[in-house]
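User: Fold this; tokens only.

Assistant: Input:
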Amino acid sequence: MEPQRRRAPEEVVRDLMERHFVVQAPAHVNLRSFETTALVNLGTESEPLYKARFDAVLELRGETYEEIGRIGPVIWLRTVAKPGETVRVYGNASAARRGDGPWQVEFALEFNPLPRLGQPRQMFEGETVVRGTDEERRLLGRLAELARERLALELPGYWMVEGLELLDTAIREDRIEARFSASLVLRDHTFAERAREDDVFVVAPVAEAGSRSALSGRASFLFRNGRWEVELAPENNPLTALGRPLAFFEGRVVIEGSEEEKAWREARHRRELEEMKRRQELEEQKRQAELAEAEHRRRLEEQKRAEAEARRRAELAELARQLRGRLALGLQGHWRVGEVTLSEPLEREGGVLEFAFTAPLELAEDTFVEKAREEEAVLVERVGTTGEVRTLRGKALARRADGGWRFEVEVGNNPVATLGHPVDFFGGKVLVEGSDEEKAWREARHRRQLEEMKRQQELEEQKRQSELAEARHRTLLEQERQKLELAKLQFEERLEQERLAREAARRQREMEKRQRELAALRTALQSPDPALRAMALDAALKSGDTGLRQLALHEWLKRTTRVALEIEAADKRGQETIADGINTFALDFANFDETSGSFTGQIVAPVQNQPADMQFSGRITGEAISLASPTCQATLRLGEDPVLRGELRCGGLVRYSNSSYAGIFRVSVPLR
């Protein structure tokens, strides 16, 4: 008998990797082939650390599905792949052993197509329905019956739902949406409203009992509080065109063309004639009041225009007098400035000219002083006559400005102060005291006062009547406005309550869904199934939820015994260390305390340091892992990849008896 050939260590490791891959592969696939290449031992013979690349072909054992929606207890699935389909998986593999301990085999996939191939149906917990199957059609039949019952409740009682069919169904987030087509039958004769006055309806026959119509629209099905609920949104409304039964008209109903209608129309015509006559009388009264008011406004406008015209003439005259020269700025318009005589100017600093001046001032019109005022008339006494001359003396400073001269005038005397003002100054009607004109004005004023008093009384009476009518009209309008405003507020309040109820229900559904997802993910992270645990770990790390990522990091550290550090970069000393053969680092985890987050272990590297120098202790804080040994320290943070990245700082590494190495290495650890 020939002795059994001893297998090479590489052959044993290849077989070990294949057997571990079979164990870690999902249960719904078979391993068709497994090939390893570039197998190399980075450790020692007593503590080997093998690394290799692998290429595996997996075959599906049954149909796989993917979830396209979850509504209530029903999970909707779509078929993804058939039995016998194969996929290729490749990546890196490592196998390590410490002394006589068990082998630790790990795989790092570079490409994993299994997630896109779905899962077996039994992996989905709860009731499942596959799109396009008989079970889906049976469920849609139950929903169609529910929609028919809901439509029957919403329709008026004189309509009957004969049948309802669902078309073009689709899964939308938390609901099933579909188009529906319903066949409706009239239970009673219907009539349409042709006219209405007060509580009298004039109607005409529209349809007979037994008439049919079709109603189509959109239906939305939600699962809420343990049962299905349906929302219907009709797109056409044939019901309004087919009228209502006579019993649905509130008040007196008159059928078009009947004798009753003729009698009702004759009575209504008589009432309209009486109302028209009353409105004409009111309009005539209003027209007379408006004519009187318009005449009053016209007279007031004429008076305002006359006063405005008088002010305008005075302003133009004043402007013309100002433009005659800077020296006339301080004079009133009834004075004319004659030729101004200047003394010899004295030039001062800054180009300022100083000089004295004399100017003859001539009265352009008679002037008066006011004795008394009565209403719009001013009684005056003449104190100056046209042509009188006075002399104005003073000093002035002149500066050049804006292409001309700007003057500062200091008047030495004021010859015009005692000569009063012209007639235009007083405004209104000016009467010379004691004249015949004054007497005639007083008599005419008395007559005008009597006429104005009578006219004012008539206008006040007309205005009072108009105000009473307008007040009654405003009261009616305000009552109608208040009714409309109250109805509007009640409608808006109902809309807001419905919106708040819908928003609260939506938030509750989202919160419950989130809680279910988090609970399922936490359960999967602690599952004994490696494939399920790996998928849950990947989903938790990529979720963006801080709590889930920290939980996943704890689970990974609890279940990991050895992990290789991938060197991405190094400083100058670190590059020299790598070049001299210290080019791999691994972490062996020994103890992990879940309560405190602390752990211990050994740094594995091709060095000759004492084991105590490579022993480390560390702690997990949030999404970061920190550890330290006498020779190396590291802090690794969890990224979005998900990959742990950070720096490994080492010093005093011994490769040979008389060598010492150090360096700062940028390392990463893919979490799988």
